[in-house]
Every structure is written in structure tokens, then in C-alpha cells.
Write a structure and sequence with these properties.
Helices cover 65% and strands 0% of the residues. By secondary structure, the chain is mainly α. The protein has one domain. It is globular, with a radius of gyration of 17 Å. The model has no long low-confidence stretch (mean pLDDT 89). This is DUF2834 domain-containing protein. Keywords: Membrane, Transmembrane, Transmembrane helix.
Length: 201
């Protein structure tokens, strides 16, 4: 029920309460790399919304034993973020199946050291871009004037919370679970530190 309520609240915010203007920040130019004059924190949040789906693919697909297949929701999250993942968590739960969905080669890739290091590396590199010099005031102004920045900020916080929840839910016996609290990279670090343990299976 909590996931459903959050999902409905996000939709209501995006439709009725988010700023109606662009604040000079458009999705198209950001996607195409036109970042001139855009605050580094805005860029880091925007880019991390493209990394979070990789995190959820890595967390959900190898543990995909629930009512609905996880991969469509994770893939759609590349475009709409938590708006696609919340229904999965809200309605997809049921007692685990005996077998996981998906081919074994995909599970091996998503659990491989190379994949985990790749996702962790791009997460950390994206975070480091913030140190080019961000302005909390500029971000606050963009949040108040830009529909894109406003909605993607809410989306980012929900994705962060979902990633922590998914880590604790699907890896209940993993070591260093507290690392999941680190935004974006945290769940991947948990998987890295537990690669050789059956606690992540």
C-alpha cells in the first residue's frame, strides 16, 4: 500500500504541483549534452537517473521470482524512473517461485565483477562532477521554476529509497548492507562485497 500511495503522490505532484515552466532547463538539450550554464548538481542528478535503472536491473533481475517480471519495469525506468518501478513493488509481490526468470547468462553478467565495477565506476564518476562547483541556491531556484528539475529531484529521492529497500529485501543476509544508504553506488558496493557469498543468491 505504501508504494501505491507514493506512486499516486508522485503523479499528483508531477501533474498538479510541479512548476509549469522550464526555468531555462529542457530535457532535450540535457540529453544531447548541451550542458552550458547548467549547475553541476543538476547534471549529476539528471545523469544518475540514467544510472539508477542499471542498479535496479542488477538488483531485481537475478532475484526475479515474483508475480510480474522485473525486467520490463527496470527498462522502462530509463525513461520514467520511479514511476515505472513503484507499481512493480506495489503489485508484484507474492511468495517466491522456485526458479528465477531469465537466462543464466544474463544473471552471470549482472553478477559479474566487471559489470558491478562498471556500474560503480560510472556512479562515482558522475558524483565527482559535483565538485566542479555547484550552487545550492541555483539548484533551489531551478527546483522552484523548472518542471524537469522539480520532478526529477522527487524521482531521484524515491529511486534512492527504493534501491535501499530492494537491497535489504533481496539481500537480507548480505554483509555491509548499510552501504546501500550511499546514493546510487551503495547497492552495487553491497553486491561487490558479497560476490562470492551465497547471501546474494
Amino acid at each position: 500500500m505504501a508504494f501505491l500511495v507514493i506512486w499516486l503522490m508522485m503523479i499528483a505532484y508531477a501533474v498538479f504541483f510541479a512548476p509549469s515552466g522550464s526555468g531555462g532547463i529542457e530535457f532535450g538539450p540535457l540529453l544531447m549534452g548541451d550542458w552550458e550554464g547548467v549547475d553541476p548538481l543538476i547534471l549529476a542528478i539528471f545523469n544518475s537517473l540514467g544510472i539508477f535503472p542499471l542498479v535496479f536491473l542488477t538488483l531485481l533481475v537475478p532475484n526475479d521470482r515474483f508475480r510480474w517480471p522485473a525486467w520490463p519495469f527496470a527498462l522502462v525506468s530509463f525513461g520514467v524512473g520511479a514511476f515505472s518501478l513503484l507499481p512493480y513493488f506495489a503489485f508484484g509481490d507474492k511468495p517466491p517461485e522456485k526458479k528465477r526468470r531469465g537466462p543464466n547468462w544474463l544473471h552471470r553478467i549482472l553478477r559479474s565483477k566487471a559489470w558491478l565495477i562498471f556500474v560503480a565506476a560510472i556512479s562515482i564518476i558522475n558524483f565527482l562532477t559535483v565538485f566542479r562547483g555547484f550552487s545550492p541556491q541555483a539548484y533551489a531556484e531551478a527546483f522552484q521554476t523548472s518542471s524537469l528539475v522539480s520532478v526529477m529531484t522527487i524521482d531521484w529521492f524515491v529511486l534512492w529509497g527504493l534501491s535501499v529497500y530492494a537491497t535489504y529485501r533481496f539481500l537480507p543476509d548480505a554483509n555491509f548492507k548499510q552501504l546501500a544508504l550511499l546514493p546510487v553506488v551503495g547497492p552495487i558496493l553491497v553486491l561487490l562485497f558479497n560476490r562470492n557469498s551465497n547471501k546474494t543468491q
